Automatic annotation (TrEMBL):
Active-site residue numbers: H238
Classification via PROSITE patterns: G6P_DEHYDROGENASE
A biological process from GO: pentose-phosphate shunt, oxidative branch
Family designation: Belongs to the glucose-6-phosphate dehydrogenase family.
Catalytic reaction list: D-glucose 6-phosphate + NADP(+) = 6-phospho-D-glucono-1,5-lactone + NADPH + H(+)
Name by which UniProt lists this protein: Glucose-6-phosphate 1-dehydrogenase
InterPro entries given in the database record: G6P_DH, G6P_DH_AS, G6P_DH_C, G6P_DH_NAD-bd, NAD(P)-bd_dom_sf
Amino acid sequence: MPNLFIAPCVLALFGASGDLALRKLIPALYRLESARLLHADTRILALAREEGMDAEAHFALIETRLQEHLASEEWAPDVWERFRGRLAFLSFDFSQADAYRTLSDLAAGDLPLVAYFATPASVYGAICQHLVDAGLGDRTRVVLEKPIGHDLESSRLINDAVACCFPESRIYRIDHYLGKETVQNLIALRFANSLFETQWNQNHISHVEITVAEKVGIEGRWGYFDQAGQLRDMVQNHLLQLLCLIAMDPPSDLVADSIRDEKVKVLKALEPISSEQLAARVVRGQYSAGYSNGKAVPGYLEEAKANRASTTETFVALRVDIRNWRWAGVPFYLRTGKRMPQKLSQIIVHFKEPPHYLFAPEQRPLLSNRLIIRLQPDEGITLHVMTKDQGLGKGMRLRTVPLLLNFSETFHTERVPDAYERLLLEVMQGNQNLFVRRDEVEHAWKWCDQLSAGWEQLGDAPRAYPAGSWGPGAAVALIARDGRSWYDDL
Ligand code: NDP
């Protein structure tokens, strides 16, 4: 049965033979097909620059890569047949104006055209102009991948080029973290539970930790990554978005712009970090040789195609302060790196100790509630509460007990949907809630640019940390200076 709730569209996937398209977007579309969440009339146009490759060869490539990326139980020949029936393929260079006439023929009809740019950001503007020139402008929504530029100035140029062709209401900027189930749940957790919202301020919260750790190294993307570094690749977007969702005031409703307005207020309130404060507030690291999964792995500078003199950071830890009434005096410690001991994304809200302490002094370090919001792996939420240890003869001994909400167990879901599945559905529906507005991107760049400029001014080189560790020792010192430690050190 066709799904009547999901609107039909023509999805034009630019860069259909690239890494993102083959590893994430096409598997996400296949899973939507499998769940019957694509409208019967939806068509998918795979657009790629692949000389000598025809549609059959491209579909064969898609089939092979799907089988690689899907779990074996997800692959079903009948789903593939349905999915393949929606696909069309066109090979052209996206700067080639006349090819857009063929694209226009392929996309004929009056369904909305969702133009997903899985390409370098440098070509976004040109594709937009060609879409408009081909007469497709009025029915098109454009989806832009991150990062948009490498600093404020370059992001403005890209955003200006896109804005010349499309209004903001038809521009969908992806930060795939916003599509994750747990990130969505943050809104429910904060604003549907008065228990938390009344405590959500500097009176009750001592500090917040946000960790986004990757176990992998550079995975063959050295050239791309070395131009960016961890600050631009992860902090400017994913970590600041998570910070905004934790720190923002309640929006008046769930309309996209109401939420985005609140996020922008947080970004505007981020305390600048001057070059004098840089050493105390920010740590840059670069992984050296070490171990991952018990195997020896090379350092960043020894990876294939590496420039041995690179000073690009693969790790950043920083203390961020927010200058507003709610968060005055509550540091947010952010940490993100490659070649960490585990793949982990989590937010930990540490509550303050009770104002008057009644128990044995040696138990005091245990005594604060923590709310752990786990994005991956094992998406879920845990609240650490203090209880009396059970049994006779133990006196009033305290024990931390986790109250655990594990999504897959609680909701009996076999699989938590991938962020891209949700984001693709939202853009098909024309819903902008989970996408980033231009001013958010630009405020985030402005704040990050001062850090890059400070590093450049000071000639600050990253500190080495062995692959398989939680980053340089200086990251431990960063939080220890405030009398705290990262949660994994507790
Ligand atoms: P890739 O280089 O693997 O893919 C980009 C694709 O775009 C390539 O197939 C490339 O073709 C094609 N392309 C580029 N310019 C043109 C052109 N003028 N005409 C036709 N085709 C063109 O990059 P990724 O897939 O890794 O990344 C795509 C986008 O997604 C980037 O903006 C990236 O920042 C973003 N992103 C990627 C993530 C990932 O995990 N890969 C994660 C988050 C964001 P050709 O090979 O011929 O150059």
